């Protein structure tokens, strides 16, 4: 299999790029692939803490590019699963510390070692995003069903298209089925109508995401949480499997009679 | 009252419709990347050009962007009051001397000038 370089990006901050990167990396490694998760957010390093590997970071990818260390010295091996590595960002440098050419060079080095190279992009549309995307073949765009996130996703999709990335696929994160059912949140159809790209996953709002980040244990190490299952399905789809999209409104939504009760309950 | 009841009951007409509408509008402008000043200038230029050929109702011009998939169309609706009788080629030549001369041989013989 040819190595695949995938950038995970969103435009807007705080919509779940790092959570998605960590969970999909774990899921792909558990499926038997050799995976590296690259933190491309220089100066605002976060992937290490979300993955629970912060205590084992010694070098970062800028050290590799500057020749301070070898690639395998900078890679942090995740001991919880075979074949999963983290390549940290530099925390005390700025985005200007690397050029687009250097990022392409780095991706070239990683292609020789890994099946999957997942790049966690910084928010924004400036050099940090461009450098994270330059060496990637494909892109996952993360959005939430909210106006600012969808607007920024649209902008990012335009930029990724102009950079020739393909496929560019969408993850809708933090979908709240109760609000969707009440007509108070954009549903999957609405977001797809607006953005007009392929959907690769729907992740329901799930408290366990916060808890797992607190502990530094990506959810996909387990199988029980609804968000874990959603990320698992995304990994399967990335691997080319056809996995149906579950209807989250059925899972948590209220039924017809509950709707009547709620309506009259509110009036009283 | 009855409409409100139905809306509440079936969960439609919530804020998501407002969200979708606002997004669609804002994205048309984002994608077209055109400022209100530019749009106004375009409107004036269009009126200038069109009034050479016909009288139009400038107070009822509608101009907007229409979107389909990932592309945007610029649609103008311009009410025509009267078409001017045969725009004089002489006038064209005065305004665009080279273009006017070049255009002349293209005209079919016998066609009213």
UniProtKB/TrEMBL annotation, chain B:
Instruction: From the UniProt entry, list the residue stretches annotated as the region Disordered.
Output: 89-113
Give an example GO biological process: cell division
Q: Where is the composition biased (Basic and acidic residues)?
A: 92-101
Q: Does the keyword Protein transport apply?
A: no
Which Pfam families does the entry link to? MinE
Alphabetized UniProt keyword annotations: Cell cycle, Cell division
Q: Where is the composition biased (Basic residues)?
A: 103-113
Q: Does the keyword Cell division apply?
A: yes
Family recorded in the similarity comment: Belongs to the MinE family.
Record-given protein name? Cell division topological specificity factor
Q: From which organism does this entry originate?
A: bioreactor metagenome
């Amino acid at each position: 299999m040819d190595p695949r370089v995938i950038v995970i990006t969103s435009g807007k901050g705080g919509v779940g790029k790092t959570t998605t990167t960590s969970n999909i990396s774990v899921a792909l490694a558990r499926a038997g692939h050799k995976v590296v998760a690259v933190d491309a957010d220089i100066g605002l390093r976060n992937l290490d803490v979300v993955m629970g590997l912060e205590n084992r970071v010694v070098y970062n990818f800028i050290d590799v590019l500057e020749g301070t260390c070898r690639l395998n010295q900078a890679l942090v091996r995740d001991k919880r699963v075979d074949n999963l590595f983290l390549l940290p960002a530099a925390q005390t440098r700025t985005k200007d510390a690397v050029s687009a050419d250097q990022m392409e060079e780095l991706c070239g080095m990683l292609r020789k070692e890994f099946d999957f190279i997942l790049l966690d992009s910084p928010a924004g549309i400036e050099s940090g995003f461009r450098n994270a995307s330059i060496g990637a073949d494909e892109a996952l765009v993360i959005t939430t069903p909210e106006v600012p996130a969808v607007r920024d996703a649209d902008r990012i999709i335009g930029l990724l298209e102009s950079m020739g990335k393909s496929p560019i696929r969408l993850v809708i994160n933090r979908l709240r089925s109760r609000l969707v059912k009440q007509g108070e949140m954009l549903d999957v159809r609405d977001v797809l109508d607006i953005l007009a790209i392929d959907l690769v996953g729907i992740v329901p709002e799930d408290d366990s995401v916060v808890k797992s980040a607190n502990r530094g244990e990506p959810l996909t190490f387990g199988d029980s949480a609804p968000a874990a299952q959603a990320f698992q399905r995304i990994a399967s789809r990335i691997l080319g499997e056809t996995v149906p999209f579950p209807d989250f409104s059925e899972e948590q939504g209220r039924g017809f009679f509950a709707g009547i009760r709620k309506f009259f309950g509110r009036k009283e | 009252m009855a409409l409100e009841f139905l809306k509440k009951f079936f969960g439609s007409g919530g804020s998501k419709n407002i969200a979708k509408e606002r997004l669609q509008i804002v994205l048309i402008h984002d994608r077209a990347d055109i400022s209100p000043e530019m749009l106004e200038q375009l409107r004036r230029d269009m009126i200038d050009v069109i009034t050479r050929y016909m009288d139009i109702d400038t107070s009822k011009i509608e101009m907007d962007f229409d979107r389909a998939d990932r592309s945007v169309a610029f649609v103008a609706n311009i009410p025509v009051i009267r078409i001017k009788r045969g725009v004089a080629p002489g006038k064209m030549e005065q305004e665009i001397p080279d273009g006017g001369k070049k255009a002349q041989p293209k005209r079919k013989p016998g066609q009213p000038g």
